[in-house]
Biotin transport system permease protein (Janibacter cremeus), 207 residues
Amino acid sequence: MNLVGVYRAGDSWVHRLPAGAKVLALVVITIAALLISSPRIALALLAASLLALLSTGVRLRTLAKPLRFVGIAAVVLAGIMWWQQGPGPATVTVGRLLSLVLLAWTVSLTTRVSEMLRTLQRGLRPLRPLGVQPDVIGLTIALAVRSVPLLLATVDTAQQARRARGRGWSITALGVPVVVRSARVAEELGDALIARGYDPGERGPDG
């Protein structure tokens, strides 16, 4: 399962919230989380974030693969923080990180990418007199979001090919195919945009 750009249809209270409200709440909570210094508050935020994710109706088993990855990273980070700064800072740092990951999943699982992009474009329109082009930024983010699953699929394919050739720990057997395939996908995306009349020097339809 990909971590980004995966929308799950549903009718939970989180699904019904406007995309702008969810993105704004995520930004506010992220800023507030950076100010947390109490382990108890960090754990409370983590519990609230987990409840918010569960309230969407998404089954945790569907998140098993990314949860395993995030769990390993959290354990490693907690060990390093505990060794260097003690249990309190380790709890705050890991609690903050896991909370933001869970909340980001909550937003991405309940909000279509197209809704988030429209929200972003509306939010950036007041900055147009300063030279900001909302349509170009929206297109760039959309391509980036859609490229993440493609890149993960490329890495997975290269890993399988590496194992099949008996080169399980070879960095070059993994890195070279990923770089070549990624460059090819980027070229294909560029050709597809040009074929559809996209001109990077052109302003958007409401520009």
